[in-house]
Amino acid sequence: EKPLLDVRNLKTYFHTENGVVPSVDGVSFHINKGEVIAIVGESGCGKSVTSYSVMGLVGQPGKIEGGEILFEEKDLTKLSNGQMRTLRGNEISMIFQEPLTSLNPLFTVGFQISEVIMLHEKVSKKIAKQKTVEMINKVGIPNASKIYYSFPHQLSGGMRQRIMIAIALACNPKLLIADEPTTALDVTIQAQILQLMKDLRQELDTSILLITHDLGVVAEMVDRVIVMYAGQVVEEGNVFKLFENPKHPYTKGLMDSTPKIHERKEELYSIKGTVPTPMNMPTGCRFYPRCEFAMEKCKEKAPELLEVKQGYHVRCWLHEEGEVNLDEEFNRKP
Ligand code: SF4
Ligand code: MG
C-alpha cells in the first residue's frame, strides 16, 4: 500500500539579508494511513518549517526549492494556493500551540465548529448544531450544549485546545498536523490532550503528524519518530526501538535531557553548545561541534542517512559498519 504522505528530498530555504537559510535541507519521510509519527528536535531544527511546507503555508522569504510532497500520490508543491486551501479545509487539518490565536474571539466556539461541519457536509444549521454538540462531547468536554454558547476567552487553555481539536476533526481529515499542540499547557492537561488525540485517532482513523521539541510526549503516543537536526533527518524509526537504544548521539542527548515522569534526577543532562547557524554550518557532520563521540572523519565528511536495520535510519559515522550501542561506547570513554 502506498503511504498517505510521502515527502521526498524536501528543500525549503529562506532568503534573508544575511544569506540563504536552508531550514529544511533534503528531508524525506512518509506517513502511512492511520499511522502517528512525530518529528522531534530543538527549536530551529526545521521541524515546523517541514510541517508548514506540507500545509502549503511557507511565506516570504521562504520558498520550497526542491523535492516532492506526495499526498495520495499528488504532488502538493505543484498545487495552486486555491487548491491548497481546499485541501487544508478538507483533507489536511492543523492544530497549533496557542489556540487563543487560532480561535475567533468574536464567535462562540459552537458556531466555529458548526461552520466547518456545514461547509464540509453541506447539512442544515440544525443538523450541524447537533453534530457540533456531539463533537464537543467527543473531545471530552462535559455540558456540551452549554459550552456550545461559550466564547473562547471563557474557557481554560486545555478546553480551548480540545475545541481546536474538534474544529480540526470536524472535516474528517485524512491527516492531522499538530505543531506543539500541548506546549502551552500544564503537564496534567498535556497528558489528557495527548490521550484524547490517541483515542480519536483510533476512532476516526486519522493519520497524525506531531511536531514537538519534547521527546517525552511522543513515547506513549506515536508509532514512529523522526529526529531532525540542523535541517536534516538524523534518526528515524520505530518508537520503542528508539527509546530502548537511540543510535544518533543527538537523540541520546535529547533523551538524557528529557525528564522521566517517574524519575527524579538532581540535574538533567544538557547537550553542550547550540544549533549551528547557516553562517557557521560545520563542513562535515552538522552535529560535530557538539558531539561527544566525534571522530576525525566526522569533521571532514558529512554522513549520509544509513539504513542500519530494516526501516531504521541513522545519519552518523559510528554506525557505518553496523549498529553500535552508544551506552557501551559511552562507558568506554574516560
Ligand atoms: Fe558524532 Fe561523528 Fe556521528 Fe556526527 S557522525 S553524530 S560527529 S559520531
Ligand atoms: Mg515550532
UniProtKB/TrEMBL annotation:
Pfam families: ABC_tran, oligo_HPY. Gene3D superfamilies: P-loop containing nucleotide triphosphate hydrolases. It comes from the Bacteria. It is a peripheral membrane protein. InterPro entries: AAA+_ATPase (IPR003593), ABC_Ni/Peptide_Import (IPR050388), ABC_transporter-like_ATP-bd (IPR003439), ABC_transporter-like_CS (IPR017871), Oligopep_ABC_C (IPR013563), P-loop_NTPase (IPR027417). The keyword Cell membrane applies. It is found in: Cell membrane. CDD domains: ABC_NikE_OppD_transporters (cd03257). Residues 5-255 form the ABC transporter domain. PROSITE patterns: ABC_TRANSPORTER_1, ABC_TRANSPORTER_2. Keywords: ATP-binding, Cell membrane, Membrane, Nucleotide-binding, Transport. Its main location: membrane. GO terms for molecular function: ATP binding. Belongs to the ABC transporter superfamily. NCBIfam families: oligo_HPY. This is Oligopeptide/dipeptide ABC transporter ATP-binding protein. It comes from Evansella vedderi.
